[in-house]
Design a protein that fits this description.
This protein has 328 residues and is mainly alpha-helical. The protein has helices at 7-21, 27-33, 39-66, 70-84, 92-103, 107-112, 118-133, 136-142, 149-163, 173-196, 200-226, 266-274, 281-291, 297-313, and strands at 235-238, 243-247, 252-257, 260-264, 317-320.
């Protein structure tokens, strides 16, 4: 059995893994900070990240429930108040809803989760599931990503002010509050982990928990970055000049239009059928996931995105901000 590392060496191990794996290095964040995202891409990120924000107080409640120490519970429960607020109209979730409105995603749309991509939902829910089954030490260690959040928040604020001036500065209030609160939260969590990882095995499990959390954050951004041509508030449908027709010679469905036709495989036919009425990207993926429950969500997203891009490039896809008819 390996001996327990000295606190300084253990902290260095945690920081080394966190810095190397933190999602500030994700290509989507790099593009965000370089000012390369479109309005639709920012809307998509805000809508999907909001779902993650709503999972935070839930996982924090789970952490509180794991502790027998009243002092720990009193300190940790502050995080729930930070996100939920002490009363309606306060807290981090409220600030994120204001951010959504500023980028063009209404509160109703944001809080309905209609725009949450299946892969993004899976990643966010995985965090709650991990904390639910983890020890108190592991659950707290997973939250150590907050140690690295202040620097990311500062870069994000500067980038949005510089590159996305159409977003009012006051809408960035959530990011500003996290610069200071994440420092406090991160320091408290780090002190707990350093003090309570009593063996090398416990230290190793704490590092693994931190790594798992970074993987979840990367998976969320992977989902957002891979999403297709839709944006958080857009609705798509096939152009009226196109129509579906079964080709008896080829024994396949075709999408016909004045300039020619496009042969469709089974998944593409399902997508085209759904797009005959106004539908959001998220609704498409939800419907396809129900029809193909054994297919990986990432594969469904890829097929959907490829077809929508091809349709849009050929002028066969309309985009609007109206209501959808799927499921109505």
């Amino acid at each position: 059995m390996k001996p327990r590392l000295p606190p300084a060496d253990f902290e260095a191990w945690l920081r080394r893994e966190g810095v190397w794996r933190y999602h500030d290095r994700h290509p989507f964040h790099v593009r965000m900070h370089a000012g390369e995202l479109s309005r639709g891409q920012l809307q998509r990120w805000v809508a999907n990240r909001y779902y993650y924000q709503t999972r935070i107080p839930i996982k924090d409640a789970l952490i509180v429930s794991k502790s027998e120490d009243p002092a720990f519970r009193r300190a940790w429960i502050r995080r729930i108040h930070d996100h939920d607020g002490d009363q309606p109209g306060e807290g981090g979730l409220e600030l994120w809803q204001r951010l959504g409105e500023a980028v063009g995603v209404s509160r109703a749309e944001l809080t309905s989760f209609r725009q949450v991509l299946p892969a993004a939902r899976t990643a966010c829910d995985a965090y709650v599931h991990f904390v639910s089954g983890a020890s108190l030490l592991e659950a707290v260690a997973a939250s150590l990503t907050e140690t690295f959040a202040p620097a990311l928040m500062e870069r994000r604020i500067s980038a949005w002010i510089q590159h996305y001036s159409w977003v009012p500065s006051e809408a960035l209030a959530y990011f500003r509050t996290r610069v200071t609160r994440a420092k406090q939260d991160g320091n408290e969590a780090l002190a707990f982990v350093l003090a309570n990882a009593a063996t090398f095995d416990a230290q190793e499990r704490a590092v693994a928990a931190l790594v798992r959390k970074t993987e979840i954050l990367w998976a969320l951004l992977d989902a957002v970055a891979a999403a297709g041509p839709s944006c958080a508030a857009s609705v798509v449908r096939l152009h009226p000049r196109s129509r579906l027709k079964f080709d008896r010679v080829r024994s396949t469905w075709m999408l016909m239009y004045p300039e020619g036709g496009m042969a469709l495989n089974r998944t593409a036919f399902e997508i085209a059928t759904l797009c005959q009425q106004p539908v959001t990207h998220s609704e498409l993926l939800t419907a396809l996931s129900a029809r193909y429950p054994t297919t990986q969500p990432s594969a469904l997203e890829r097929d959907t995105n490829e077809l929508l891009l091809a349709l849009e490039a050929g002028g066969l896809l309309e985009r609007s901000r109206g209501t959808t008819g799927l499921g109505s």
